[in-house]
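Here comes my example:
=====
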Amino acid sequence: MSTPSSLLPFPTIDLSPLSDGYGSRSSSSSELKDLAHSLAAALSREGFAYLLHAPLRIAHDDLIQLARDFFALSHEEKMAASKQQRQKQKKIQKKKEKEGRAGYRGYFPAQRGADNFKEGFDVGPPEGVSSSLRQQSAGRNLGGGEEMDLTEANIWPPPSSNQGSSALRRNIEEAYRELQTLSTQLLSLVAVSLGKEPGFFAHYLEDSVSTLRLLHYPAVTGEQRQELSCTEHTDSGILTLLHQDGTGGLEVLSPEGEWVAAPYVPGSIVLNIGDLMAKVSGGRFKATMHRVRAEAGRERYSVPFFFEPGVECEVRCVDDEGEGEGVVYGEHVLRKMKAWVEFQDAEKMGVVEVEAV
C-alpha cells in the first residue's frame, strides 16, 4: 500500500511531459514551464521531491535488482573490483609501498564501528572522458601526499566471477546513460526555473563525471548496535536521483528541524540537490540534510545517481556576471571527500564481509 501524497514529506512531480525529451513537439511550452515552476517550488521549500513517470526505459524494480545481483557476489569477487584494489594496482605501478586512500571508482566494503554501515559500488561514465582531460586532471592532491584521479576508468569484477557478470555490466552501463540523460533534462528545467535559457548548464555536461552508485545496507542483527546506516549529511554536488526499495529508513530534516521519514513511493525517484546547486541558485534552492536509519533485521538496497559536472568545470551562481568567485568542481569534491568513509583505508578501519541474504 502506498502512502497518500498528503502524508508525504515533500511534493510529487509528474514528469510525463518529458516522455519524448525536453522541448519535443508533444510537450507544450506551457507544460514545461509549469513543470519547471513545480520543480523550483519543491527545491526552494524542501530541497527534495518525488518524481513520477520519469522517461526511463529501465524499470524501477529492475534497477534495484541490479544492486541485488552485484551484492550477491562473494566478498572475494567484490573486493577484486574494489577501490582498494585499484589503489594497490596504482602503487605497484608507481613502486610505492605506502598504503593510502581508496580509488574513486569501484567497490567499497562495509566498515566496522561506522555510522555509515553500508557497502557500495561506484560507476562512472561508461565511455570514460577525453584523454586530454584525463591528462589534465589525473593526480589531483587529496591531502597528506595522496593523489586521486577523478577521471579514472571503471573497475569491474573479473568476467569469470559470475556467468551473468557481462550482462550485469551492460545493464549497469545502460542505466547510467539513461540517468545521465534524465539529469540533462532536469537541468534544463532548473535553468528555466532560474530565469535562464534551457541550455544554460550545457557546459556542465562536457566530460561530466557523474556517479551511479549501487548500495546495500546490511541487516542489523543480534547484539549489534547500529542506529544509523548512513549518517546525516547534505550531498556535495548538483543533482541526486535516488531509487530506493520498500524497506524504508530514509529520513529528511524538515524546515521545523525534525527528522521525518521519506517512505518509498512505488515507481518513484527521489530528487534532491547538493551544496553546489544551492550555491548556483543563489540560495534559492536548499541542500537539505538527510540520513538513513538502520531498520533492525532488514537489509536495504538503493541506487543513487549523482549528477556531477566535469572535473575542470567552473561552477558559478546564476546571478554572477563573470565577476563572482567560481568553484572548480574537482577541487570542491576533493575537499569534501577527505571525510567520506568510502574513500578511507578500509583495511585500517576494519572490513565487514557481507554476504547478501
Notes: The mean pLDDT is 83.
